[in-house]
Amino acid sequence: MAEIATLLFKGYGCVRRKLGCVKNQEDWCLPLACLLCSAAAGDEHRKAMIQMGDDFGSRGWIYAAHICYVVAHLELGSRRRFQLIGCEWVLNYQSVLKEEMERTEVYEYVASLTSGIGQPRFQEFKYLYACDLAKAGLSARALDYCESIARTIFKFPRLISSYFIERVIMLCKELLRGKEEEEEEEEEVEWLLKLCRLHRAFSAPSSSFSVGSCSYESQEFQEELDSRYTVGELLGKGSFGTVYAGVRKADGKQVAIKYVTKAPEDSFPGAKPLEVALMEMVSKPPRCENVVELLEWFDVSTSFVLVLERPIPCMDLQKFRASNKNGQLSECLAREIMWQVVQAVRHCYNRRVLHGDIRSENILINTDTLEVKLIDFGCGELLSDNLYTSYAGHSSYIWSLGVLLVEMICGDICFHYVDRVIEMCSRVVSGECCHLISWCLKNPENRPTFDEILSHAWFTEEFQDTVQVRELE
Hints:
ATP binds at residue 258. This protein has helices spanning 2-19, 23-36, 42-58, 62-71, 98-114, 123-135, 139-155, 162-177, 182-188, 190-203, 216-228, 274-283, 317-322, 331-350, 390-410, 418-425, 431-441, 450-454, 457-460; strands spanning 229-238, 241-248, 254-261, 294-300, 303-309, 314-316, 353-354, 363-366, 372-374, 381-382. By secondary structure, it is α+β, with helices and mostly antiparallel strands. The protein folds into four domains: 1-85, no CATH class; 118-178 and 189-203, no CATH class; 236-309, Phosphorylase Kinase, domain 1, CATH 3.30.200.20; 314-459, Transferase(Phosphotransferase) domain 1 (Transferase(Phosphotransferase), domain 1). The strands form three sheets. It has a five-stranded antiparallel β-sheet, with helices on both faces. It has a three-stranded antiparallel β-sheet with strand order 6-8-9.
């Protein structure tokens, strides 16, 4: 980002020398350049960049807004005025300039290399451009565009309509009918056959696709999974899935690969498990670094496969506590962990996701850095105003946080009587900590908000660890 800031400073200086003071440039160029040079954490930096872009866009400074979005690697179409780079409104395809298409293609390509982000909403423009190329007699270039579109569809099949896939297939077949070189046709048509299989799978009645059927997903996605990842040792097994260590072959990145057995209702083409949907919601930028990231997922045979980030070295909070005397952490250490857990839970709540199972086993600790990751959304649900009142969803979260804090500092104790728990905690923790525990566990209607927790005296005021004079019974 600092390199882009340097270009902005130089460009601003050049414009100023040639044209003198230019109001709009002063309003956006210098603030943007300064933000790019900021030393803020990566996710905070990106969030600030997107917010600045939204502000510029609301003022009608489209190029400035798009610079912010491009630097932040925002997905095309995620903003109403961010469909083509440098273009404010797209009334129809005929109004699109060649320069805007080419500029956006460059962004699509660079984003795919640097962040792996695809641009499914851009494929309609590419299809229309391919049609124009075909009309102009540039069949080879048009076919290249179709292949590029097809490869994006393979990555995001659930984000592309069956009707659009059919249109792409029809154009490809028309272009191929005009080709005379059989060898080239045979080489180029493999991706088209794959696209046709995908279209048939999505167009077939759901009843014809049982869990054990040999569908597009079970064949193609399994091949893609095997070609991109090496599956290693078993990391854990539960009622909702089995997790293995994995390595991404492209760059050696260590990941966690989770296999989730399909339910009968998940057997039709294009089905997306709730856990994946929830993780996509919490993984969209700007992310929270304390929530494990869903890198990608596959639909293979009888399972959904989730590829997740894997902090190394790490252990879950339950084992981390067990490695300490009496299974208890110091207040100072508990406070550092708790702060991050609250950030993670607040992020989920803001994304309308109820994790549903906040406990020590679902919190990973990087043992080198003490960075926290909230994992396992298998019990999660969507927070809906119709299903939950804001009080109910929020209250359950705060209760879970209170229980977690008690376990970290006081160890495993019985929770039959809240008053008894608080009285026991008061023997071994500071007054500030005891007050926060009481606030989280008592009267559900008066439980604190996430911001109130993070601004509580236990987090904001300096204190010395309370000496734990005796073990809890």
